[in-house]
Amino acid sequence: MFCNHPLNKLPEHLPTLNIEGLTVAYRQNGRWLEAVRDVSLHIQPGEIYGLVGESGSGKTTLALAVLRYLGQYGMILQGKIELNGKNLLDLQPAEMRKIWGREMAYLPQNSQSALNPTLRVGDQIAEILHYQLDMGMKRAQRRAVDHLREVNIADPERVASSYPHQLSGGMQQRALIAMALCSNPTLLILDEPTTNLDVTTQAAILELLVELISQRQTAALYITHNLAVVAQMCQRVGVMYAGVMLEEAAAASLFAKPLHPYTHGMLSSLPRLGEGKASARLQSIGGQSPPPGQLTSGCVFQPRCPLAIEVCSENPALSSPSAGRHIRCHRWEAILKGEISLPTAPGMESPGRMEASDKEVALSLEGVAVRYPLRRTPLDILRREPGRSVRAVDELDLVIASGQTFGLVGESGSGKTSLARAILGVADRTEGKMELLGAPLPAQLSSRKRETLRRVQIVFQNSEEALNPYLTVEEILLRPLVTLLGLSRQEARDRVPELLRAVRLPAAYAVRLPTQLSGGEKQRVAIGRAFAARPDLLVCDEPVSALDVSVQASILNLLCDLQVENRSSLLFISHDLAVVGYLADVIGVIYLGQLVEIANADDLFKPPFHPYTEALLTAVPTLETQSRQKGIILSGEIPSPTEKPGGCPFHTRCPRLVGEICKTQAPPWQRREGSSKRYRCHIPWMELQAAQGKLANGEIQAG
Amino acid sequence: MRREADSLTLFAQNGAAPGRGRRLLSSLRRLYAVPSAAFGATIVIVFLALAIIGPLIAPYEANQQEFQDARQAPSKAHWFGTDHLGRDVFSRVLLGASEVLWLSGAGTLLAVLCGTGIGLTSGYLGGWVDELVMRLFDSLLALPALLLALLMLGAIGTSVTSVLFVILVVYTPIVARVVRSAVLSIKTRGFVEVARLQGESLGWILFREILPLVLPTLAVETALRFSYSIFLVASLGFLGVGVQPPSPNWGLMVKEARQSVSLTPWALYYPVAAISLLVISVNLMADGLKRVLQSPVE
Question: How far is A453 from chain B (nearest CA, A)?
Fold first, then answer.
């Protein structure tokens, strides 16, 4: 039945999922806007198929179409969706309900909203077994515990009788996996299942998924924007853009030799682990994805394509360079033969990595601690116990030289944002000594002078939050000039075009409101505002983590350029080691409010590593397909700062635990001549280096 | 990322940058798309129009007494009949509209201005200022509105100014609370923090950064307060502590007509109908505003 279709030449057996020529549209203001256009794919049992694309590319719509869960405004206009040979589009809603959970399961991104907060986790799993497999409720509850054990939950009985809010994010995600797989579905659809998790947790979840899927021979559709995760997980990959499948190939060949200019662009816009800004500037794709439904004639990627020629204004046909590989591009043959090559950017003029010692000090912190007071219970007051507090940042020392980029890495809950807030002067309670350019920096914003305010500015993660939706871009950009530089409104207004030019936005954007900008453009405005008053220190709190890959690269490049122009220092906070490694001169790794390792960016990726850094490094997925190092997978989650472990704070999760000493004594700083690296551990330099030596032999540079 | 995509599509549809005026117009159009709200808004506009042109079209003076025509049922000469003193009920209802509307309108406006100022400041500053203001308002809210109004009018005497003052005191705490709770969620947002880091003044932060985001909530609350004010003004008139006779206040008219309800029921029915219709319409409009302004599409 599908053999006559050109896409399906090779199936040895029936594919679990077979999609042919699928077109899905949403109704908006009386018009049908196509979100997915003529997409075909098939997935074999036991295969993980990766569907990659930026936001708005239609990947989630495709998943919802397969689930037949598009809602009242969505409609499948054309095509065929077959699950185990039966066409889902012929089924009535009641018949679909029997397929959900039984033959087909869905693992959503947001575990918090996917679990019912009012039901115990075990009961939620039992419910599926009860209704889908007609199991008695008592038996289903016992089985639920077994299913929780299968997803490597150590004490399944406790988890089964817990409510979702009592579990950590990673644990919730495990429970959801147990829920999705409990009825042994033939198809599993995963929609960004690890996007909200820390890298260490992500690594553990991914490993679990690979194991369970291959064990059960489930067919899996893995949707994500993260190319590295796809490289680790999937056998075959489809790249979607603006609702169209541009390229489809086996993962290994796609990452080794991308044929479509878009795939190539995405891959080269990713910072690689251990590669700094001095070696190569990140490649960014100009422009932005078209809004859904905007029908372009010709190739959808043509407006942004560096290789576009005249013929590209015609719709390219789907061609197949080799078995199992499909591409929608007019120029793939020329790219394959190497007649034309995709442009690569030259290395950027980097301010150079500098030693902290030979430069003027921009920011120095000594014994800085940030506390959040806990509410005293009536019992505490009766017992006359003093008010307790949580230390989010604990006795931290830090020096940032002027003009330097200091990267701060850590999991969520490690205290990175609290430290940033302390430096900005908006933390609740800050102790310790802070100095900016040699002058004391008051802990409270209200006691800072205007000149001090000018010197420290911020770029937030979420530009949605950072820009007032009711102020125009011009107003947003001119305010710091008025308040911090003391210019008149007219003088400030005259300088707005200059600021817009600096962040590479057209001057006409001055009259726009933030809602009329794309995510990347908003972040540009936020960066323009931060640099407007020429600050000496710019704090960037995850400035690119909410952006698409292709946009992320251009924002990182912009930050670099503006920093050099303004000679500002940068405190760059991120959970993404590759991004920090790319941008930073010096990197600090923070765990539970304490720095555990500091090194120049090039030294950080050489052993010895603090065991925590080592865990972070091995957890980061890289673009090398199927190369997952059997690295360290950290057990458990970061402890709550209210119950901080004594001795070395990392001892509860440390894979290289020495013994009793780790639990009782705070570890010393280990350092060595000839290396900028310092780490805080009981294990001496040589010993740790020998143990981690294998990592030096190239495995870590995999990215 | 999802929201980004949404705003992108929205932008694609709206085309070029819509100005403030066009946004207001589109809000109005959306208001009229809700049938009940369209009904409410229309009636309110009719009442407003009648209040303005009332003196021009009223067939009789409000207090023009024609004893020979007293207690007449509705007829061609007296559409709504006449009361026990021979006054034309239609003219009195018509002329009473302007009084009710301006008293409750002005009172609401005062309460909203005051409440917004206090709510913004108290919510943004937080700490002991907030605690003090809110506990003070709690104690005011502990008393039923009408009881509080009676107590105050008893103390300061009855006049138009004192009725305005009563509306101000009774409704300021409620508006302030609503504004404050909106401020609490807005003040933690990034752009407010950035404004502080840029050394913006308190006034700028309150009125340029925070207030525009409170406005939708405030518009709904204003409409609601307006309907309650109409009711309060009428109730005070009915209890005889508000506006004094011979003013054509609807509440007062109900009070006077109540004594002779068996003889001249029309003198009671029409002012009651006017009060109910106006209050219901304002409420419907408030409800529509809520749906239009606080829906997820911004």
Answer: 6
Minimum-distance CB partner of A512 among B5, B17, B208? B17
Q: Closest Cα of chain A to B84: distance in Å? A: 57
Do residues A663 and A646 lie in contact, with contact meaning Cβ atoms separated by under 8 Å?
A: yes
pLDDT tens string A21-51: 999 998 887 788 888 999 999 999 999 999 9
Counting every residue written for chain A, the total comes to 703
Residue of B nearest to A460 (CA): B190
Q: Does A35 touch chain B (CB under 8 A)?
A: no
Chain A partners within 8 Å of B208 (Cβ)? 471
Q: Which residues contact A297 (CB under 8 A, 6 or more apart)?
A: A313, A314, A315
Q: Which three-class secondary structure string do you get for A208-222?
A: HHHHHHHHHCCEEEE
Pairing of strands A48-52, A104-107: unpaired
Is the separation of the CB atoms in B99 and B248 below 8 Å? yes
Residues of chain B contacting A518 with CB distance shorter than 8 Å: 4, 8
Q: Could you give the CA distance from residue A161 to residue A145 in angstroms, rounded to a whole number?
A: 9
B28/B40 Cα distance (integer angstroms): 13
Contact A479 B200 (CB under 8 A): yes
Q: Give the separation between CA B205 and CA B192, rounded to whole angstroms.
A: 7
Please judge whether A480 and B5 are an interchain contact, meaning their C-beta atoms are less than 8 angstroms apart. no
A37–chain B nearest CA distance, Å: 17
When CB atoms are compared, the residue of A292, A480, A518 closest to B198 is: A480
pTM value > 0.80:
yes
Using CA atoms, how far residue A227 sits from A205, A272, A328, in Å, is 17, 12, 19
3-state helix, strand, coil in chain A (%, to 5): 35, 20, 40
ipTM of the complex: 0.81
Model pLDDT for residues B72-100, shown as the tens digit of each residue: 778 777 778 777 777 888 888 888 888 88
**Residue B115: per-residue pLDDT:** 96
Asked if A512's CB is within 8 angstroms of B5's CB, the reply is no
Cβ–Cβ gap B4/A533 under 8 Å: no
SS3 (DSSP) at A100: strand
What residues of chain A score a pLDDT lower than 70? 1-12, 292-296, 342-359, 625-632, 694-703
- Cis? peptide before B246, omega within 30° of 0: yes
The superfamily CATH assigns to domain B2-63+76-294 is MetI-like (1.10.3720.10)
For residue A272, give how far its alpha carbon lies from the nearest alpha carbon of chain B (Å).
Answer: 23
